[in-house]
Specification:
- The structure holds three protein chains of three kinds.
- Helices cover 35% and strands 25% of the residues of chain B.
- By secondary structure, chain B is an alpha/beta fold.
- In chain B, strands 5-4-6-7-1-8-13-12-11 form a nine-stranded mixed sheet, with helices on both faces.
- The longest helix of chain B has 20 residues, at 203-222.
- Helix content of chain C is 17%, strand content 34%.
- The chains are: A alpha/beta, B alpha/beta, C alpha+beta.
- The A-C interface holds A 123, 126-127, 130, 136-144, 146-148, 150-155, 158, 199-205, 247, 249-252, 256 and C 1, 6, 9, 13, 30, 36, 60-70, 72, 75, 77-78, 80-82, 89-94, 100, 105, 116-117, 126, 128-130.
Chain lengths: 389, 350, 161
């Protein structure tokens, strides 16, 4: 195993990209990353593409060669692979790219994530997203993704006294950061009052507790750390890339309010990097719902069990807080193109570690964590990134 | 007759609407319409309830009360004029849902409001002939009157299931007889959502003639007079008809007391006479004689000469809900909710 | 959802047929071929016996859904709950015959048989379990004890074999 570094990053705007097709956004992000990495396409070894549901969303499967083709690389006959793991598809693609380079079999790869959600009606998109939960034993009985998270939220409130107002602080902070991110789907600030009075989706969760349906793509170029300096002044080393899975259905998990997959992936990542949650001052986490963000903070070890609500409300996870969480605006404000999310998180963290995040720049730090989640937690991916000296 | 009733169960949906509320929407004096019909309120099924679910709940109660192994059921017949499918049996779903499949026969019956009593007769025949151990007869409906039509004030939802067998009989069947003619008083053509009726023609030549003739014929066979019966149950399309026919035949209010449930839940069509009988059995002791006379438009009557046995007092009625519970409970809803529940509102794309 | 896909699960969706591990005794719903909790999970292969749930349970958490799953549009707002059964498994299902505001964690419920959804106006109708509150002043809810007894007997028989 050799050390792997992120050499370049690219990302489209997230949001309702009515005039842009899936293939357009896919290649834009990838080409940006190649340019950023100063990588000639001759040196490229392959493409790993995270995508959740292109078949259902745009009636197109077999999308990895499609993107390679429209990136002008069909004649190179490179390997291109699509990776699916619900909302964790992007993180999983990154894990596969990491393995490819770390193994020595590939030198340089592009890891992309792309999703086009607005080519179907909202209700159709919501139903497709629900298929990342257990269709036979949850969705058939009336469950949706927000409904399942509503069950988690109610239980967390019951067990730990988490309040509706504390939950509301999560999207308020997300929009605060989104306002500073030119790529964000939402750049407007919102108030706790607005969150509390938004249309209910799956009580106790309302419209602002849930991430939007966004289009978007993100990409990174990975390569061996040993030659990283040829491509960038500020290579970012992947210190750990860990995946863990759990029961598919919420009802089959041991705990409703603990994401054991996230706990397992995070513990493995910290062990591998010989680090500790306390060493992390910067993170991009999965905040598909407000409650999902609080649970993730507890699972990752950033907050004690049951304490994420009050600590979030106290600003512990705001820009410059104990851990700066989701400076990009997260899934809630930067946007939630499912397969792109896990890659976009790393794009943001690399820009932060390089000190290129402008208005939303977190205090200088060496280590950052990315957390990507599929469904209600059946797949979790944790990456630890470190600015290479 | 060896075969008799060995168990029974009832089910009525939770929601109710009053004639006053219905009249409010159509500019009628619903209160006086309700008084004229002797219907205080009618039951309304939730949007996820239909003849299949109601029948299943009623039969599950019956099996539990009787301690009956569903695998010993040889036949299930569901009588209804509101089967969810025009083609595909209600009875197969019910059979599967109570664990009675696959070694049994099953079919749906339709004879307006008397399909349930017809099913009982069929089961009596099969059990009596020794062809099956237990036969299940269910009468259930989720009937609809056309919006604004007189029927809308009474057409409701509910059902009852009766298990017919020869062992541990709680209600003996001394005899049954029917009276059938071609009388077009009420019908629904294929593909039509709501039924049609012939107005006042549904009265004398239809309901009253058939019920009266059938009841008299039954008593002639049994050699009994009205005073010999402790209880009488008539089909009850409203609260008025059964009272009138009962008086005409010489029955008292006391004899009709438990058998009349329509004033509190509306006309459950195929379920109506059976829910009346279930209510009688809920209250009866051993050795009580019961006359049941069903009626179905089109038209026909089925009568039963019944007598409760010594097994009834010890019968485990402590499962499921008694009919009285349904008469006493219920949540009233406004017409708008009723219209939503009954599928009278069409969603985009539907 | 295709007809066959729903149909093949009807024994579970209609009658709550689960499985029981003859090695560790854990009950699973829906039935499993491998025990999800056995420490040496391979030992459980071939030792999972049918097991009938009673249909009783308690609300562990719930949500009031306003943005429905496909096919549930007419039922909005509806209550969806995680129900803990006394046999162990948790089930996801609607709570019906209740005012949403009166549902609480700890509410005692029992399984009912309801329509889940229709495949449009011309398609098949899917039925299955939902849950309704079990009132304290009410008699026990209907269920099928004979089925349960037989299934438990089957487990015993196999365990003794």
């Amino acid at each position: 195993m050799r050390d792997v570094a992120v050499l370049g990053v690219g990302q489209t705007k997230f949001g309702e990209l009515w005039d842009r097709s899936f293939r357009e956004i896919g290649i834009e992000a990838g080409l940006q990353a190649l340019v950023d990495a100063k990588l000639s396409s001759e040196d490229l070894g392959g493409l790993f593409l995270g995508n959740m549901a292109s078949g259902a969303l745009i009636e197109q499967e077999h999308i990895a060669p499609l993107i390679l083709d429209y990136a002008g690389l069909a004649g190179r006959h490179l390997p291109a692979v699509r990776i699916e793991g619900g909302g964790a598809s992007g993180g999983l693609a990154l894990h596969q790219g990491f393995l490819a380079v770390a193994s020595g079999l590939y030198d340089y790869v592009v890891v992309g994530g792309a999703e086009k959600l607005t080519d179907v009606a909202d209700a159709t998109a919501a139903q497709i997203l629900s298929s990342t939960a257990d269709h036979e034993w949850e969705v058939v009985f009336g469950a949706t993704l927000p409904a399942l998270w509503g069950l988690v939220a109610r239980r967390h409130m019951h067990l730990h006294g988490t309040t509706r107002e504390q939950l509301a602080r999560v999207p308020v902070q997300a929009h605060e950061m989104g306002a500073k991110n030119p790529n964000a789907h939402f750049r407007n600030r919102i108030t706790v009052e607005q969150v509390l009075h938004a249309a209910p989706v799956a009580e106790p969760l309302g419209l602002f507790d849930c991430a939007p349906l966004s289009d978007g793509a993100a990409a990174v170029v990975l390569g061996p750390l040993e030659t990283a300096r040829k491509h960038t002044d500020t290579p970012v080393r992947i210190r750990a890339s860990e995946v863990a899975c759990d029961a598919m259905a919420l009802q089959h998990r041991r705990e409703t309010t603990i994401g054991e997959a996230t706990v397992a992936a995070a513990q493995a990542a910290f062990r591998r990097a010989r680090r500790d949650p306390k060493d992390v001052r910067l993170a991009e986490i999965s905040d598909g719902t407000s409650i999902g963000a609080l649970i993730a903070l507890e699972d990752l070890g950033f907050a004690e069990r049951g304490r994420a609500g009050p600590e979030f409300a106290d600003g512990a996870f705001a820009l410059g807080g104990r851990v700066t969480v989701n400076p990009s605006g997260g899934l809630k404000a930067q946007g939630c193109p499912f397969g792109a999310v896990g890659v976009a998180q790393v794009v943001e963290l690399v820009r932060q570690l390089r000190g290129e995040a402008k208005e939303r720049q977190a205090p200088a730090t060496e280590l950052a964590l990315a957390h990507d989640l599929g469904g209600t937690g059946a797949t979790a991916v944790v990456h630890l990134l470190e600015r290479a000296g | 007759m060896d075969a008799g009733i060995v168990s029974y169960g009832a089910y009525v949906p939770r929601y109710r609407i009053t004639p006053a509320e219905i009249g409010r929407v159509w500019g009628s004096d619903g209160t006086s319409v309700g008084q004229g019909l002797n219907v205080e309120r009618k039951s309304v099924p939730a949007p996820d309830e239909d003849t299949i679910t109601i029948s299943t709940e009623a039969l599950r109660t019956a099996l539990l009360r009787g301690g009956i192994d569903p695998q010993q059921i040889g036949a299930i017949y569901v009588g209804s004029e509101s089967h969810p499918y025009a083609v595909k049996p209600t009875a197969t779903v019910v059979a599967q849902a109570v664990g009675a499949t696959p070694n049994l026969t099953a079919a749906d019956f339709e004879f307006a409001c008397k399909a349930g009593t017809a099913a009982i007769q069929t089961c009596l025949g099969l059990v009596g002939a020794g062809m099956i151990r237990y036969g299940v007869a269910i009468g259930t409906d989720t009937s609809q009157g056309a919006p604004g039509d007189a029927l809308e004030y009474s057409a409701s939802a509910g059902g009852a299931a009766f298990v017919v067998g020869r062992e541990r009989v709680i209600c003996r069947v001394h005899g049954t007889r029917s009276y059938t003619t071609d009388t077009p008083d009420f019908w629904r053509r294929e593909g039509q959502k709501y039924p049609s009726h012939s107005g006042r023609f549904t009265g004398e030549p239809a309901y009253f003639r058939h019920v009266t003739e059938c009841a008299r014929g039954m008593m002639e066979i049994s050699g009994l007079e009205p005073k010999d019966y402790r209880h009488v149950v008539f089909h009850q399309p409203n609260g008025k008809f059964p009272q009138r026919v009962g008086r005409q035949l010489g029955f008292s209010e006391a004899q009709m007391r438990y058998g009349l449930v329509t004033p509190r839940i509306g006309n459950t069509y195929s379920g109506a006479a059976l829910l009346g009988l279930a209510n009688v059995l809920d209250h009866a002791g051993a050795g009580e004689r019961i006359l049941v006379v069903g009626y179905g438009s089109g038209a026909g009557s089925d009568a039963f000469d019944l007598e409760t046995t010594d097994a009834l007092p010890g019968f485990d009625r402590n499962h499921g809900r008694a009919v009285q519970w349904y008469l006493d409970h219920g949540v009233e809803i406004p017409y708008a909710v009723y219209a939503k529940f009954r599928g009278k509102i069409h969603l985009a794309g539907s | 959802m295709s007809i066959a896909r729903f149909w093949r699960e009807t024994p579970r969706r209609y009658n709550l047929g689960g499985s029981k591990c003859l090695t560790c005794g854990t009950v699973a719903f829906p039935p499993r071929v491998v025990c999800p909790t056995c420490t040496h999970h391979r030992q459980s292969i071939g030792k999972m016996a049918p097991f009938q749930l009673s249909g009783e349970g308690e609300v562990e958490s719930f949500t009031i859904v306003h943005d429905p799953a496909e096919g549930f549009e007419m039922q909005v707002p509806y209550v969806l709950a995680l129900v803990r059964t006394p046999e162990g498994p948790r089930l996801t299902g609607q709570i019906v015959d209740v005012e949403p505001e009166s549902v609480a964690i700890g509410l005692k419920v029992h399984a009912t048989f309801r329509k889940l959804r229709e495949e449009g106006k011309a398609g098949v109708i899917h039925y299955g379990y939902k849950f309704a509150p079990t009132g304290e002043d009410e008699p026990p809810p209907p269920r099928a004890p004979a089925v349960a007894a037989r299934a438990e007997g089957a487990v015993r028989d196999r365990a003794e074999a």
